[in-house]
Structure formats: C-alpha cells, structure tokens
Specification:
228 residues, Arc Repressor Mutant, subunit A, 8 helices, 39% helix
C-alpha cells in the first residue's frame, strides 16, 4: 500500500489547501467532507493514515474515530480546536495516534503525518528480532506484541512507545524521548498525550503477578519497563 492519506473534514477550503500541499509532497490524498462517508472510505483498506477533524456536523470526529478504531488499528491524527483539552484527551483515550490543534499549517500537519508513517514503515531489518521481556513478547517485524501469549491490539503510536520502553527495558525513558520517538515531535508544555497513551498500554497489557503494571512511572523522570 502506498502512503495514501484520507482527510475527513467539512471545511472544504482548508481540505483543498492541505490536499494541494500533500500532493506536492508526493502523497496520494483522498477526501471526505462528512463522517459517514469518511468511515466507509477509511475502512476500505486503501489508506496508510487518516486525518479527522473533531468538529463536524452530523457524525463528529470523535465518533468517526471510535467507529474506525473498532475495526482498524490504522494510524489516525485528530484535528482539534486549539486549547480544547477535553476532545484532545478523549480522542487519545479512544485510540488516536496524535492530534494537531487548529488552526494549523499544512506544513505542520505534513510533518506529523511523516513522523507517524516513518514509524509504521520500518525498513531497518536489524531491528526486526523478536524481544522477550518477562511476560511480554515484542515482534517489531510484524508490529505486534503479545502478553502471556495473547495478542495485544496496539495503535501505531502505542506500539512505538512500547518499542522504546522494550528496547530500554530496566532503564528510565523520559517523556521527551518517548514523544520524539513515537510522535516525531518535542513534548509541548501541558501536553498529556504520553500519559494517556501509556495509560492505554497499561490497560491492554494487564498486570504482573503482584498486581503492578509492568510499566512504572518514575516521578519527574519518565517511565520504566520492568525487566524481570
């Protein structure tokens, strides 16, 4: 599948501007101006990533995200109103890979798209070896993880976050390093995206025999994946 992008947004002028820019950058771009069509188009399996605006009439972006995520782990970026933390956090909790506050530039959105696609399109075969950390089996080539033999359904960003923790098991990994690796950007002030993603990963992995999460928070420093 080529890096084809689906834009779901009712702002026709903005979508045309973004589509023109992405096309100039070498991407194929599909467009849907309302939620129902966007969901149907996203689930055709033709797209590498979807960009969804939260504020749409009818089926809003949060519901679009929910319905796509129920059937697919494809990367999804949300366009949110600047300063609207409620939609932003809800979107991340429902499985969005990242968000971009509006108004945004086409260049900024393109940078976010490229950052996620770089992590999905892994080409370094030396990094493909399976890694086992306790009850967690991590399979980079398949972009899959198993907890006690059972597949864990991770989003693209969750997978990339877990990857960095796995490759540094037993060591503290800072939030900034996690954001750079999984989202391709520096962590902004008051940005809670990493906390929300880590919380989701913890829920999906389950607990150790003693009831603890295998991912521990180290106050003011970051996170640590328990090695033993």
């Amino acid at each position: 599948m080529s890096d084809k992008i689906l834009l779901i947004d009712d702002d026709v002028e903005l979508v045309e501007m973004i589509r023109d820019y992405l096309t100039q950058e070498g991407f194929e771009v599909g467009v849907a101006h309302e939620g129902k069509t966007g969901i149907r188009e996203a689930l055709k399996g033709l797209y590498a990533i979807v960009v969804v605006d939260v504020m749409m009439p009818g089926i809003n972006g949060i519901e679009v995200l929910r319905r796509i995520r129920n059937e697919s782990a494809m990367p999804i970026i949300m366009l949110t109103a600047r300063g609207d933390d409620t939609d932003r956090i809800l979107g991340l909790e429902l499985g969005a890979d990242d968000y971009v506050p509006k108004p945004c530039t086409a260049r900024e959105l393109t940078a976010r798209i490229r950052a996620i696609l770089r992590r999905v399109n892994v080409t370094n075969h030396s990094d493909y070896l399976e890694i086992v950390v306790g009850d967690l089996t991590f399979m980079p080539e398949q972009r899959q993880a198993k907890w006690r033999g059972k597949k864990v359904n991770l989003t693209s960003t969750e997978f990339s976050l877990l990857e960095l923790l796995v490759r540094h098991a037993g060591q503290i990994v800072s939030k900034d390093a996690l954001s750079e690796h999984a989202q391709g950007r520096k962590l902004m002030r008051f940005d809670r995206s990493i906390e929300v993603h880590i919380s989701s990963i913890r829920q999906k992995l389950g607990s150790l025999n003693d009831g603890r999460s295998c991912i521990q928070t180290v106050i003011h420093k970051g996170y640590l994946l328990i090695k033993d």
